[in-house]
Amino acid sequence: MHNFLVLRVIAKLLLPFILLFALYVQFHGDYGPGGGFQAGVIFAAGFILYALVWGVENAELVLPRGLLRFCFAAGVMLYAGVGLYDILAGGMYLDYSVMAQDSVKGQHLGILLVELGVGITVSTVMVTIFYTFAGYRR
Amino acid sequence: MIAAHLPALQVVVPLILAPACMLVRLRDAAWGVALAASWASLAIAWLLLQQVLASGPISYHLGNWAPPIGIEYRVDELSAFVLLIVSGIGAVVMPFARESVRAEFGTRRVYMFYTCYLLCLTGLLGIAITGDAFNLFVFLEISSLSSYVLIAMGRNRRALTASYQYLVMGTIGATFYVIGIGLLYAETGTLNMADLASRIAEQPGSRSIGVAFGFIVIGLSLKLALFPLHLWLPNAYTYAPSMVSAFLAATATKVALYALLRMVYTVFESDLTLGLVPMYAMFLGLALFAMFAASTVAIFQNNLKRMLAYSSVAQIGYMILGLSYINVTGLTATIVHMFNHAMIKGGMFLALGCCMYRLGSVHIRDLAGLGRTMPLTAAALVAGGLGLIGVPLTAGFISKWYLVLGAIERGWWPVAVLIMLSSLLAVAYVWRMVEAMYFTPPPETVPEGMDTRLSMLIPTWVLIGASLYFGVQTELTVGVARDAATALLGMPR
Fold it and tell me: What is the Cα–Cα distance from B202 to B215, expressed in whole angstroms?
């Protein structure tokens, strides 16, 4: 697809906004509609667009498979780790209230970290699935 | 402090160590992580059982949200017993896995194998511990998805189609279950099992609750391979790697059966006692069919893993039979047989794993003269086979004893006779195995050395030994099972 000038220019123009919108959905998720899953999918969609226009080889230079594998394991560990931290801090598993002096602040921090874990795992798994199918015949 | 959080840790320890396996990447390190997780799970399950026996059911509120709003983990005798079975099998199978997986799976990306195994363990433990009907579905999916992957990792290429078949059937089962839960939620507005039970009791004769019950029972019957919904099972167990066959045969169907017991006796108890659904008649009929049809098919199998797989379908029939009595003795038999069968079948599949490792085949032709070439493995297969038949002094006898007692208690003499008759079919397929192993000369080209590696023989004999030990010493198994059965039927102790 290297010859489609319109496609390349538009994709280049859109890419930063897609990623920015993903981050907005991610971090605004505690107040409005959104959250880790949706944000992860949007974020991954940005990279999939990149891979469609510039080829999987180039996408793999930006996001190598090893890094993806590290990230989707780390996302799950972040989620479960927040829960374990809550136990160590004296609460129940995933009881965010104990994460800060003020229980509302604690809830806020907890859900932020947990959703971040979800977002990291979902986006990297989506890209990995795309790589797997795209690289099937190679 | 930790003691109060054991219910959460039971699920979280394997869950958090699964991605850790992924991160360490080295083959032996990943195996070490998986081994540590399995043993830690067993320790937690044991402590939980002691806590429950000492001070009654435990309720753990995740995120400190009280049920029925929040998700509750609820450990009573039955769930603690199932947790012990699952984590116990996991802990024994893991030392076996190292050599077996290396031989059958190659060296590439072995850490992925252990990651999937730990996720599967997480899912199975989660099903047994949760007190929330939807949370149960989530864990069911975690364990199913990872077991599809584990089965597909088999060396034979047919493992892929076997896994795909299981995926289709398993997904239908899970979908049926979630449709049932959806209907229940629409009707009652709650997902907590205890809360569901009390709200269902308030609306006797509701048609949508009846439909929900049907969906849930059929969905779970698919997962537990109740005859005639067992078609996915023989291929899946035959072509999966040996360690996976042993682990899944001993745990996956038992856990699905646990979910069925929970649903039938805890959630829909009132419908059952009011006799709105003639459930027991259906279970009785299907169980008897399973016992005879599956055992008969097992006799004609030449691949021993497939023979054991059909035998598993028959043994699930025995468990469902106990459930259909709706009395304490029958239910005790069901719960005890979950444990006993896990030991026997797990041990036998491990023994076949030893054959696979040494001979590269589990075809009955290639096992000729196994009694001379691999005496300890052959003896394990025979001891396990005696358990399947139900010979006295084996664990299988205890289960059948209570099944027969329960049938007589209900006045169902023909059923008691049929149980004995179906054992004769087990004699037939076990005898075929014995004949090949002891009365056929070994082939000329036998690999050098005695038997197989100790790291594989010891786990095999731990399970087979347990099946013999619990055939004599029944205090733990029958004691806990009877308590669990009484609690399920809601009778005073």
Answer: 21
Instruction: Determine contact: B142 vs chain A, CB below 8 A.
Output: no
| pLDDT tens digits along B27-54 | 888 899 999 999 999 999 999 999 998 8
pLDDT exceeds cutoff 60 at B114: yes
> How crowded is the C-beta side of A114, counted as CA atoms within 13 Å?
20
> Omega before B228 cis (within 30°)?
yes
pTM, two decimals, is 0.93
Cross-chain CB nearest to A91 (options B9, B60, B64): B64
Dmax (CA) for chain B in angstroms is 72
Phi first, then psi: what are they for B130, rounded to 5°?
A: -80, 150
Tell me the C-alpha distance between A98 and B257, whole Å: 38
Contact between A93 and B18 using a beta-carbon 8 Å cutoff: no
Both tokens of B282, joined, read: 């259906």
Q: How far apart are CA B319 and CA B330, in angstroms?
A: 9
Q: How far is A21 from chain B (nearest CA, A)?
A: 28
Residue A108: partners with Cβ closer than 8 Å, 6 or more residues away: A30, A96, A100
Residues 26-65 of B with CB under 8 A from A: 60-64
Q: Which of A72, A77, A79, A132 to mutate to test the interface with B (most CBs of B within 10 A)?
A: A77
Q: What is the C-alpha to C-alpha distance for residues B462 and B453, in angstroms, rounded to an integer?
A: 14
Task: Give B-chain residues touching A77 at CB under 8 angstroms.
Answer: 16, 19-20, 23
Using a CB-CB cut-off of 8 Å, the residues of chain A touching B63 are: 92-96
Q: What is the pLDDT of residues B309-325, one digit of tens each?
A: 999 999 999 999 988 88
Residues in chain B: 493
Q: Do B12 and A96 touch (CB under 8 A)?
A: no
Count of A-B CB contacts under 8 Å: 49
Q: Is the pLDDT of residue A105 over 80?
A: yes
Whole-angstrom distance, CA of residue B37 vs CA of residue B145: 20
In this predicted model, what pLDDT tens digit does every residue of B415-440 receive, in sequence order? 889 998 998 999 999 999 998 888 88
Q: What is the largest CA-CA distance in chain A?
A: 60
pLDDT tens per residue across span B191-242: 999 888 888 888 877 788 888 888 999 999 999 998 888 889 999 999 999 8
Nearest chain B residue to A91 by CA distance is B64
- Judging contacts by C-beta atoms under 8 Å, the chain A residues touching residue B64 are 91-92, 95, 97
Q: Is B15's CB within 8 Å of A76's CB?
A: yes
- Taking alpha carbons only, the member of B158, B147, B465, B180 closest to residue B306 is B158
Q: What's the CA angle centered on B367, arms B364 and B372, to 5 degrees?
A: 150
What span, in angstroms and rounded, lies between the C-alpha atoms of A113 and B25?
Answer: 25
CA pair distance B152, B241, nearest whole angstrom: 9
A99, closest residue in chain B (CA to CA): B63
Is A77's CB within 8 Å of B16's CB? Answer: yes
Nearest residue, CB atoms, B19 vs list A76, A83, A84: A76
**B145 has a chain A CB within 8 A of its CB:** no
d(CA B250, CA B463): 11
Smallest CA-to-CA distance from B219 within B179, B248, B184, B183 is with B179
> CB of B253 within 8 A of CB of B224?
yes
